[in-house]
Amino acid sequence: MPNFAWAQGTQQPVKIAMIEGLSGGNANGGEAVFRNLVWAVERVNQRGGVKTAQGARMLQLDRYDSKGQIEEALSAMRSAIDDGAQFIVQGNSSAVAAALIEAVNKHNEREPGRRVLFLNYSAVDPILTNEKCSFWHFRFDAHADMRMAALMSVLREDKALKSVYLLGQDYSFGQAVLREARRQLGAQRPDIQIVGDELHPLLRIKDFAPYATKIKASGAEAVITGNFSNDLTLLVKAAREVGFDGKFYTFYGNALGAPAAMGEAGLGKVIAVADWLPNVQTAQSEAFYQSFRQRYPKPADDYVHMRMQLMIEALAQAIDKARSIDAVAVANAMEHVFVNLQGQAGKMRAADHQFQQQLVVGVMDRQGAPGVKFDVEGSGYGFRVIRQIPAAQAELPHSCRMIRP
Q: In the 8-state DSSP scheme, what is residue 111?
């Protein structure tokens, strides 16, 4: 576990606790997050750490394995706070995030002397910055409705598309994705027929052949899915094996084995939305990506998240501005952060603590094709950016009624 704190020899480090599934069905996703956060923390520490009234302090990242389970995550949070963590970071499950928000709310009320902030990099159920919004929680990923709107901006223009199959994981996030897909299709493409609408158990299906067979038999020309990790990889593999040749409109089709699993069958067919993609064609973006690959040269480790870098930069900026690691002071500063890293910028919306940033949509293509300089995980396939949605356009209204301390 990285610990860059003691070279300074004076101030205690600022402890960030990552609570994530590091074993179980989404362990590869948890490890990818950890690599990103290590790299982000290293960048802050290499420039001298964060500035407080007592002097400079290093950041220290500690990891706790939730096994992807709510009870394990809550237990890990208690351990992290007992270990002196001031900031909790998590993201790879909206169900876990919702439980952590509630636990942080209760803890901060009970123990004002040990308050913590929760920074969320991937849990995108819209409810987390709407009905369940909390002063102690900040989300740095675009929520599911924002991501769906970005995907729909591409799907809407596919005039040949007449039928879609909705498939998702049966928990809060998967349900939210399909609900919003139905709503946006009805509003923007009422001519498209929904020929299937199905939820399946989260990260438990080993064989997606029955689902792929149903998709093909339905006559669907595209699948809309929020699936991630094995639930996406196994789905696209099964679809290829049964001969489904439609498109996949995905939230996470751009990594963690999905492009390699899809292979040639995915060319021009797999569409993914993200906050950033390696083939965003600017010199700054390319330099950012190349520096990540130098830090993690193994092809299997090639999954860089710009938003996680922006999250740690935002935390450092908020601490510098507050000159403190007090949770209220940092939260007040965090509400007004504006961060810019290698040309990718974003700012926090104070009203609901939803980070606002540009989104991009890419389509899978061969490495070396126009606009596809970089592939994914050594697969030979990358994503060509076909749409960039400015932050002002990606922004959506909220229903948060923030209760402040």
A: -
